[in-house]
Design brief:
The chain is globular and about 60 Å long. The protein is of the alpha/beta class. Helix content is 38%, strand content 14%. It has one domain: Vaccinia Virus protein VP39 (Rossmann fold, 3-Layer(aba) Sandwich), CATH 3.40.50. The strands form two sheets. A seven-stranded mixed β-sheet has the order 5-4-3-6-7-9-8, sandwiched between helices.
Length: 255
């Protein structure tokens, strides 16, 4: 700590002390199950208003929770991926987000988005957008041979890559994506699996969707990790967000 007090009378920690404080706070947040339960309850209530659909990134709708956007920014800045692949393009906001974060980190943007159907309004939103340079799109099933070949070609000999899975959220589909696409990434790469929070939501919450508790991205991640010792849950990032769709869904290739 420095000796000089702040305007509210407390000492200012030096850089080392501040980092130690942050590490302790992050660990406490990650381990606080009661707080997470309250956060999930808040998300359930907020989803009655379509909370995740209310945001934009640089003018393009982005279906992301602000906590997760901030964590993604930290991860891109820290890891500096040469390539970012994302399944589930939706309205295109996450494509612009990925590319802009690479640009902010001083990386030439290279983003590939895959979706079973890419609608005209999405292509229009990405056309001529100043931060969409470097974004490529592939329409089709993210688990088929064509997708595998496209991702393999896109990743190429990149030293660092990131894969975001945010399309069909059933256990079987996410597990298939992990099995097909994750091995195409170099060692050290990150895989971010969205909507693991379905396992924490009330059973039957997604009555109009084919996923639920026991059948969702988190159950797929757990099965994939159990069968693949070359991948592990990354504790540094997997519980960084409190209001988060990615809790326990950020893994890394280690072998």
């Amino acid at each position: 700590m420095t000796d000089a007090p702040t305007s509210h009378g407390t000492a200012v920690p030096d850089a080392e002390a501040f980092e130690a404080q942050r590490a302790e706070r992050r660990a406490g947040l990650a381990a606080d199950d009661d707080l997470r339960r309250a956060a999930v309850d808040l998300q359930v209530a907020a989803e009655e208003h379509g909370y995740t659909y209310t945001w934009e990134w640089l003018g393009v709708p982005v279906i992301r929770i602000p906590d997760d956007i901030c964590v993604l920014q930290e991860l891109v800045w820290d890891y500096r991926p040469d390539r970012i692949v994302e399944t589930g393009v939706a309205r295109g906001g996450s494509m612009v987000l990925n590319a802009s974060l690479q640009r902010l980190a001083g990386i030439e943007p290279r983003v590939l988005g895959l979706d079973i159907l890419i609608l005209p309004h999405t292509r229009e939103a990405l056309t001529d957008h100043p931060m969409a340079a470097g974004v490529e799109l592939h329409e089709g099933d993210s688990t088929d041979e064509a997708a595998k070949e496209r991702v393999a070609e896109f990743v190429g000999d990149a030293e660092r890559a990131m894969l975001v899975l945010d399309s069909n959220h059933t256990h079987d589909h996410v597990l298939a994506e992990l099995r097909v696409l994750a091995p195409l990434l170099p060692v050290g790469s990150y895989v971010l699996v969205a909507d693991t929070l379905i396992e924490e939501f009330p059973a039957g919450h997604y009555a109009d969707r084919p996923w639920d508790r026991g059948d969702n991205p988190l159950t797929a991640v757990r099965e994939f990790l159990a069968e693949n010792p070359d991948y592990e849950l990354d504790g540094r990032w997997a519980r960084r967000g409190l209001l988060s769709e990615f809790r326990d869904g950020i893994i890394r290739r280690v072998g």
